[in-house]
Amino acid sequence: MYWFRRDLRLADLPGLRATTDAAALLPVWVDEARWHQTDRWGIEPLGPHRARFQADAVADLDRSLRALGSRLWAQAGDPVALIAALVKAASIDVVVTQAEVAPYEQDDVAALRRAGVNVLTVAPTSLFDLSDLPFKPAAVPTVFTPFRHAVEGERTPVHPPMAAPRSLPPLPDAAGLPEPVLPAAASEGGDDPRSSFPYARAGWTGAARDALAHVQRYFAGPLPRQYKATRNGLSGTGFSTKFSPWLATGAISPRQIHAELLAHEAREGASDGSRWIVFELLWREHFRLLHHRFGRKLYRGRGLTDQPSPGHNPQGFARWQTGRTGVPLVDAAMRELAATGFMSNRLRQLVASYLIHDLGGDWRAGAAWFEHLLVDHDVHSNHGNWLYISGRGTDPRGGRRFNPEKQAREHDPDGAFVRMWSGR
Ligand SMILES: Cc1cc2nc3c(=O)[nH]c(=O)nc-3n(C[C@H](O)[C@H](O)[C@H](O)COP(=O)(O)OP(=O)(O)OC[C@H]3O[C@@H](n4cnc5c(N)ncnc54)[C@H](O)[C@@H]3O)c2cc1C
Question: What is the pLDDT of residue 309?
Fold first, then answer.
């Protein structure tokens, strides 16, 4: 069995390549029950935007597998129980899956192993291979800049991506297996004309083919050279790369993006913009690697510090969620998030800071709301950034408060963004 998790693609997937000599292969994906159960904040992890985007990614993966004579055995429910049952029903000798370094995903693998299932985890294709790093993953520098200096100083390689397999083993005998059920894609949403990531529009869906086409189109045009100057923009499809939703589902790998970036630099020369895109991908890499060092500590209210756990402000939180704090730029950003599933990095920083430092809210509640709504939710980047802004993570300055008035003056000087989302 190959169990797809956050790697909804066929290219650059060493674990899948490792299965191509098997006598039979069952490709599996699970719509996990926990994504639909409310958490301690009363929030369902998988909201409508990502559900749609992910459903499109899964449907595309199924099509790509069918083109190779296979198909995706999509199931819905508790992944541990479902995988264990499939293993038994199809007499599967090994389950191969990407090693996701995050608590729930690690717990699932541990539970399967306890149940006697033979699970082989393969390191995820990130920018760097763990074995190439100039430090042990568990000793990754805590602060971003020393991390960046270490990998840049040692010229840690980014390997070229692997091609997708040209053929796959046949499916095992399906007699006795529950029928595969692809997730239903909601038919509404994703096409708000104001959206910075219109995921229901042709070319912007969760499909791996859209991911690669988007990245290639991006690097073929003028935007990479402008990226450093535009990246703090608030609205529009072009001010930043918009790679994040596809990276989050794994419809594309960082190495595939890096290869397209190198091809762009070979054609047009490196620019401040192209170099800054790599810089941002290093942030993503750092937040992932921190899990090797700190694991579950990153999810505690106090994070990596000895500070008391943050308080929760339910009324303030409700006003923040619904864009009714009375601070125009914060409210506009929160309405954009709810309506479209996307928000610029600058505004993510501002609204996170506002919840934590102005409303006295718990950063974990904010992270849970982002998880529900963001089309690009990624547990490492989301929790990492929230913890960072709260001052309980790896910010050497001990947290950041963003002044809403100053941010509005600098980034929305004519009030266009606030007007766009004010409903007036
Ligand atoms: C509170 C908060 C929560 C966030 N939650 C998420 C999340 O759930 N998923 C997510 O992918 N990003 C998250 N980010 C990081 C960042 O806002 C998004 O990656 C970025 O806005 C996505 O748009 P883009 O692809 O156009 O980014 P670009 O500016 O084009 O950057 C290129 C790529 O670099 C990476 N990157 C850029 N900035 C960051 C960053 N600060 N941290 C980590 N990686 C970064 C992303 O992979 C991104 O796709 C969060 C930031 C904050 C402040």
Answer: 87
| pLDDT single digits (tens) 69-110 | 999 999 999 999 999 999 999 999 999 999 999 999 999 999
With the CA atoms of 313, 314, 316 and 322 taken in that order, what torsion angle do they form, in degrees rounded to the nearest 10? 150
pLDDT of 172: 96
Cα separation of 1 and 8, whole Å? 15
What is the b/e burial string over 127-136, where b = at least 16 CB atoms within 10 angstroms of the residue's CB?
Answer: bbeeeebebe
Pocket test for ligand 1, best of 349, 370, 376, 401 (most atoms within 8 A of CB): 376
Give the CA distances from residue 417 to residues 194, 294, 385, 401, in Å, rounded to whole numbers and listed in that order: 10, 38, 23, 21
Among protein residues, the one with the nearest Cα to ligand 1's atom 45 is 284
Which of these, 397, 419, 423, 392, lies nearest to 408 by C-alpha position? 419
Q: Which fold has domain 300-420?
A: DNA Cyclobutane Dipyrimidine Photolyase, subunit A; domain 3 (1.10.579)
- Taking the CA of residue 374 as reference, the ligand 1 atom at the shortest distance is 8
Pick the CATH number of 126-159+208-295 from 2.40.170.10, 1.10.3210.10, 1.10.3720.10, 1.25.40.80: 1.25.40.80
